[in-house]
Amino acid sequence: MGDIRHPAGSPPQVDSKTQELVEEFILHAPKDRNTPARRMSALQELQLLEIMCSCFQEQSRDTVRQLMFSALFSLQGNQADESRMVLLGKLVSMAIAVGRVPILECAASWLQRTHRVYCVRLAQVLVDDYCSLVPGSGPTLQNIHSASPRFCCQFITAVTTLYDLTTEELTPPLELLQMIVSWIQDDPRLVLINFLNTPLSGNHPISSLDVTPLGGLMRWCVKAPLAYKGDKKQALTNSSTEREGEVGPLFSALHLSVLQVLMLLPNILNEKGLYGRLALLQMESLASLTSDLSRLLDQADKHAPSTDTRALPQLALDRLAQALQVSMANGALLCSREDLRAICSRLPHNNLLQLVLSGPVMYYNNIHSPAMAFSPHAAHSPIASHPTHPPLPTHPPLPTHPSSHPQYPAQPFMTGMSFPFRPSH
After folding, report:
1. What pLDDT is recorded for position 204?
2. Are 334 and 281 in contact (CB under 8 A)?
3. Which of 153, 228, 234, 253 shows the greatest Cβ crowding within 10 Å of its Cβ?
């Protein structure tokens, strides 16, 4: 099948002759572009999928499995790619149904290295199969959490990229939302599995899926209060008040879970030597979120708000403020307050958001670490760019006085340490 060359993040390389054989005899792609592709019968397609499932299951060497998967499904930019995508969707769907973990692991690698346009296409096929077309098939998809956590993490990243809450069609189905919330509540570290198990480099392709689904999940939580109330969501909001009552608590639970995951990051980033050096949340993604939120708020202002919906804009802004606060405090977001104020400048006043934007400059926990000398974000630190000065002479301590309010202990505004907070519901 050709030589195996598998650097981190790139597919195993398959020679062109093998690709031609796959396209001709498996994908049935004609060599002449003017010739229509041959179509297999439903029975032939099922037999092919069963053979593939058995072949991947029986192959004990992961390197060979990855090479086989790459030969079949690496996109070549030609006419056969459409056939590849159709066959891939059916194979992964079958692998979920019959529990073929090796195929799910190969599909996780495919999702990691493939353009996001095709990743969301695969995600859409799986959502259609297990959340839309066949009632009651959700529990089968639910099992991928334990069968292949790596594929589950990539699947969450793909669906949060697909469903951006801009239209009714791009709103996650209730069953999918329930599934994702339960996965993350059961294991918060699930959304970090790809990040924890992937050798990271500074050249992550911008066209690929994000390293974690944190940005997409944050977008869901912040936009949900307004996205589910807009004119484009009438089919949702009018379908049943019972469904609407389920969605609110689900997004509230998801918001809490995202904040809890963010608070796991300092120890993880310190273990990898990446605290203050690697941002898991990108400023471009955050700027897009604040732009979408500003648009949704403008739309909400054009409608006469009822008593029930008047608090929704503040709920969205509260969630944004909490996400920004916890992201910066735990090293997921690396930026200056000035940058933050710039991208939030179009948003209306919110007390909690104002507190976050006007707070003191963020200091990272290990700001004095020698590793910070190599940080690309060192320019944002007011300490890193100034020479050190000799310590000032010490003074005798002032006498202590008993606090007149012992029930209100002083707490720092932001130090990177854990602190109690209550997410907005």
Report:
1. 67
2. no
3. 153
- Nearest 5°: the CA angle 152, 156, 161 is 150
Q: How far is CA 134 from the centre of its chain?
A: 26
Q: How many other β-carbons are positioned within 10 Å of the β-carbon of residue 342?
A: 15
| Alpha-carbon Rg for the chain in angstroms | 25
Q: Is 192 left (phi over 0), alpha (psi -120 to 50) or beta?
A: alpha
Q: Which two tokens stand for residue 221?
A: 């939580």
- N- to C-terminal Cα distance for the chain? 55
Cα angle, residue 92 at apex, residues 86 and 96 outer, rounded to 5°:
145
pLDDT category at 268 given cuts 50, 70, 90 is very high
pTM for this model (two decimals): 0.79
The C-alpha atoms of residue 301 and residue 366 are separated, in whole angstroms, by 44
pLDDT band, residue 23 (cuts 50/70/90): confident
